[in-house]
Queue: 2 jobs
Job 1
Amino acid sequence: MTALSLTVPRVSARLRGWRVRPGLVLGVAFLVLLVIAAIAPALLTSHDPLEISTDGAFLPPGGDHLLGTDQSGRDILARMVHGARSSLVMGLGATAIGVTVGAAVGLLAGLANRFVEGALMRLVDVTLSVPDLLMALVVIALLGTGTVNALFAVAFASIPYYARMLRAQTHVVRRATYVEAATALGLPRWTVIRRHVLPNAFKPLIVLATIGIGNAIGAGASLSFLGLGTKPPAPEWGNMLSLGIQYISNDWTMVAIPGLAITLTVLSVTVVGRDLKRRSEGRAV
Amino acid sequence: MSDVIPLVEVDNLRAGFAARPTAVDGVSFTLHRGECLALVGESGSGKSVTARTLVGLTGAGSTVRADRLRFDGEDVLGLPERRWRRIRGARVGFVLQDALSSLDPLRPVGREIAEPLRLHTPLSGRARRARVLELLAAVGVPEPELRAGQYPHQLSGGLRQRALIASAIAAGPELLIADEPTTALDVTIQAQILALLNELKTGDTSMLIVSHDLSVVARLADRVAVMRDGRIVEEGPTEQVLGDPRHEYTKALLAAVPASHAKGTRLSSAALVPQHRLREEGEGILRERPSLKRVAATATDEPVIEARDLVKSFLGSDKVARTVVGGVSFDLHAGETLGIVGESGSGKTTTARIVLGLETPDSGTVTLHGRRWDALSPAERRAERRRLQVVYQDPLSSFDPRYTVERIIGEAVAVTGLTGTARRDRTVELLDLVSLDAGYLRRRPLELSGGQRQRVAIARALAPEPEVIVCDEPVSALDVSVQAQILDLLADLQEGLGVAYLFISHDLGVIHHVSDRVLVMRDGLVVESGDVGQIFTDPQHEYTRALLGAVSTLSTAK
Amino acid sequence: MRHLKRIAIRLAAGIGVLWGAATLSFLALHATAGDAALATVAGDGANPTQAVLDRVRADYGLDLPLHRQYLNYLGKLLTGDLGESYQQRIAVTKAIGGQLGETVQLAVSAAVVAVVLAVGVAVLTAGRRRWIRSATSGAELVLTSFPTFVLGLVLLIVFSFQAGWFPVSGNGGVEALVLPTLTLALPIAATLSQVLRTELEEVLEQPFILTARSRGMREAAVRLGHALRHALIQIVTMSGFVIGGLLGGAVITETLFVRRGVGQLMLTATTTKDVPLVLGVVLLAATVYVVVNLLVDIVYGLVDPRVVTA
């Protein structure tokens, strides 16, 4: 019944896919800026993020210090630029670990026999019953505070989500008609899994992981804000914000600048991630 | 007659959406009281949109214009919502396809039927309840008390459709619009619903039927309007339009219905192909097939497949085993078509999956050229699989969504051991066999029409040079004109290549057209089998007779 | 009958999850228990003899074989004994109990605000004009991207420091609850309303909605009477996400607004490596999760007849 109506949108769908969306462009631009800051911070600022300036503390934005100085007289712009790296490392590192371990668990559960699957998924259920942040706090309570431990904590809390998603996806794909069609061609089981099941099961996971990077950056900043992650004076947006709060009644820019940076980062990653998701689902963008 | 105001007057109606600005492109018709008019056409012809303009429900973002759009003498073009609400349900009832999705699944059907009464009548809650029971009884629902309290998913398809009709006629509308009212139903149920609608028609209710199915229309309508590309191409009394059509398109459409033709006659014709597709694909889709080299052995007495006493049961959600296939046996010889026909739940698809070796029977055997499936080692079984291929109802879901047409067919060609350019040449050759040119190699399935997808699926099935292709409802999702092309293609391929088909369908017309021999299945059992001529002209089993009786072939209708 | 059976199965699964959580807690405690014995006797610089250490180990039951320790631990849990806090030297249950009221108040008010906001926004904006939907989904996107502490700070700067409407911190009275509640509720509301609106828009395309409209129903009645119930089923299945958001968010919100509560307790315990207390809070969170999911399952069966009778 739908045969005729489906012939239409071939060319137009492609064209629409390339339509420029201002939100997406801004998001990508901001992320490019972040990557530059992370790789080559010297391109964006000439100040040392740890150097205590002789110009004084609490300088307002402007002049030599574009965003002013903090309570110790350190250049805020330099601290922001240098802080980008720890945010990106947190986002990419934690997501990479979470996806890798989660995917391994999920794939094992999705392809193994019912006993192994049952055991793994009950374990996932148990970890899912504890909110992410509390799970991260448990890891920190056991391992101790610090940048690396915070990264592990964020990664650990994300594992069950990726595991559950990949297992569900593996199940869906394994029952798909195209997998059956490949079986009917007489292809060996592992060829079918390698050629059709894995790529199609992983596709949505990759998209989900993109959005997960944003969440991991936010979670990492939260831990630093709580004093559990990267400690001052190392430049990190979460701890800059946490320090700024002490002076919030006099000068809220010290809070607003890192707050804005964190939000824009998470927002940009989410916008890009969702766009990828829409494309991968074949929806009109 | 001229001083009687027609119930519905439509003149030069144009309606559309952003994506389809001319969905309805100048439609005019008149519907008198007590009359039944049918709008017939394939998908995209604009018939549903036309019907929806009469209740003001063409949806958000649509535009409706007309020189005249009147209901009972009142101009309803651009009527405000508030006034529309007094017409909808009260004066015009609306029945949609598939009551499972057209009734709110979270409400008992009694409440759904009572809703128009609550909106449009002053009846008290108690009186409404009594009226609901009356209505259910009137549409032939047994035990109305019990049924009124049940949810749609607890009712059978037929009872659901009756309940939906009851809710549409609850407030006593003068016009009943039925959009594909029997499409999702099994043939026997379909016949019952048509009988019910015919009963309703005998009152002074007017009816507007929207359908793609000419046999439904033949049974109900006084007059027929044939639609194509948003226009009415032919309108007249039912007997005349279906019996002695004037317009080329109507003639072609009637000729494309497989029921009325024996195996071997061609169904498709140029008049059926939409103009834009002829432009896009050229005349190729209608051309005669080139001479084909036969890959399968010529017919011998030894069957390719022998199925013996196949039994298969599944555990239901309630942990009770349900026997889906209960002892099915048949032979399939080289180069012939064995049709399996049955209603939903008859076990025909499970039988096919057992034959393909995708499902293991609880008992019974499938023998392929004298070798039993279950006696083969996994490696031997894999090697045998290429001799049996399959074409599904929904080709899109049978393609890896990441693959292009070239990779889809190429993967199947690789099974024969071809690589590199040889593989590519063979892929192009296969595409040519199904009348698609090499330009389609780089397309993805989503970029193809339904008919093109089914062609690619057939090309893939042919790639390993199989002796048997299992066709599981291969044309059920297609429009009549596309169905005609695919059935012609399958016939050509069989003639040229000598491939055998195990052809599964719920559609008796299609089965009649394609089969040499037929298996009639019901509740997992074969109730009757035999030569196609014998089954259709001299059915022995009561159920086969009931099935055939339920199908109103166009020639016998009215 | 089937309804009861379904709930019984879910109950068993819930107990299984709690048992699993308890087992993991035991393993975590065991891994750090050496520190515990030492921490009890060793103040700064003290150098306890082996005999003293052994006695402490015996006191804690650490000299028993592992499976006995495990059974002891489970037995104590069943009687509501979560052990003793390393730092506060009081029972974990007591430490949590003293803070629970404030957090429950905050979480419940935030949950109510979030659900009411989400349902309201979604019902009003689903399937409306393009610009209304774009504006709402843009606002939702920004809200979900705000890390909780940044959102809280924005609210603080605007409503406390600039406008001066609400107190900056503390537990005193209703005014002090407004900003923390919003901080906790807004991101949850934004996510819920996104899901709810998508779901509503899908439901509004269903044939039974067309049927309802063709009966002459008002748009508002169609949305509230038919569509909303279907969409709410989706929301019900997101209860796990809501609980996670509330409990995780409570840690940050309470820290930011300097409120007493379980979240603060958890943070302090984490910083001081007070493992029994940390695990106590985690077990509490898991229990809340299991109980709420069980309630949701019961509600689900009532809302959707297909679950029970299909």
Job 2
Amino acid sequence: MAMLEAHGLNVYYGMIHAIRDVSFEVNEGEVVALIGANGAGKTTILHTLTGLLSAKSGKVIFEGRDITRLPGHAIVRLGMGHVPEGRRVFAGLTVLENLKMGAYTRKKEEAAETLQKVYERFPRLEERKNQLAGTLSGGEQQMLAMGRALMAKPKILLLDEPSMGLSPLFVSEIFKIIESVSAAGTTVLLVEQNAKKALSIASRAYVLETGVIVKTGDAHQLMDDEDIKKAYLGE
Amino acid sequence: MNFLFNLINGISLGSVYAIIALGYTMVYGIAKMLNFAHGDVIMVGAYVSFCATSYLGVSPFLSVGMAIVICAVLGVAIERLAYKPLRSASSLAVLITAIGVSYFLQNAALLIWGSNPKNFSSIVGNASIKLFGGQLSIPVITIVTVVTCIVVMAALTIFTSKSKLGTAMRAVSEDKGAAQLMGINVNTTISLTFAIGSGLAAVAGVLLCSAYPVMTPTLGAMPGIKAFTAAVFGGIGSIPGAMIGGILLGIIENFSKAYIDTQLSDAIVFLVLIVVLLIKPDGLMGKKQSEKV
């Protein structure tokens, strides 16, 4: 049984049918990439998974449990962490307060332990713990957003465009971090426009075009796929 | 000595505005709406306290507690019934609804308590403290009001900056979606904000009517508007801003009454607001708002 399954999701923005019959699954321990052009519906799918949007039809199953109609704030408790597009750190809160909010659903003692681990992974966050999150650089904010999601000790981490707007150096660093998070046992669902990078660390991938999944398969095979090369890898 | 007397009275009146303004500013911060019914919650608070002491014979202190609880419940109910269904509607629709709720409360009060003014008896009596060999006489309620305002302010500041719930409140006011992803129940947090704001309105109502004892169902309207002005003056969304805005407004109003003209005092208050907003559009303590694109 897959850890996370989507069955025939349909999502609308008013009259616009943004996601059409999308089904996919993520198995425990995998890094699954969801790639596609701007506006293909990648973010919409992630928002539907964590309850920021609700699907008109279809189901989201997490660890065998139907979470389609569960309120958004209850989903994180089940072990689903979501690093949203654009990072969305709380700019007026300090770095430490942001991290503490990440552990909102957890007990204080447990959170303190995880905080140390997050600091080990992102030493820069510890250096800047009393700084307002809004004053961090883009790359640091991405680290904070990831650290904040990890504070909930998620079983699966949904990452939405973690490389967006970052310098190439930071992009490589972020991808290294994703690999190490995965190696530490967290399942990852990665949404990216940077298909090359995403496919290089993913085990499997789904290709999304205007709300429909058009291709799926092993990440390395997709990298050699002529259509994919032309459309997403710029070769 | 006259100057000092006017200053102290101004600070006291301003303290009431500040407590009301806190409700405006907190609700605005979290729900991004102007709750124009807030002023009328003050009135309900005053009437509840009045009824509890006059008809039920409870002690003034307990009556304030009852007023706080009833207004907090009322505030939560208003949000749930009138504002929550409109959360994704245009801000204009919410604004009009708030004005509707304001009239609803005033008319409900008119039905229940009638239009005849009632005489509120001060919760601390009419005692005064005499200073400088009797040259300066300050009513006890004036001091109680200022002290209450300081206590409320300190408690709220500690709550929002230190406690987990307070931090969650700030997170929700910044980004509801991201806050939800943290597992914060946004609806509960908004309800809590309305409860706190309305509870404070009850306190303000009792303090206001202790100083100005004539009660009518529209008693909350003018202080409500002035406190809203104070909140904008200080920078809406900012808790210290509401405090400073409220107290400055009270002082300006009282000095205008004492040294310029009683009739003109309100005009002067709003004139100062206009000047401040021309120079600092975000208010005294307001943060620069950058529009997200």
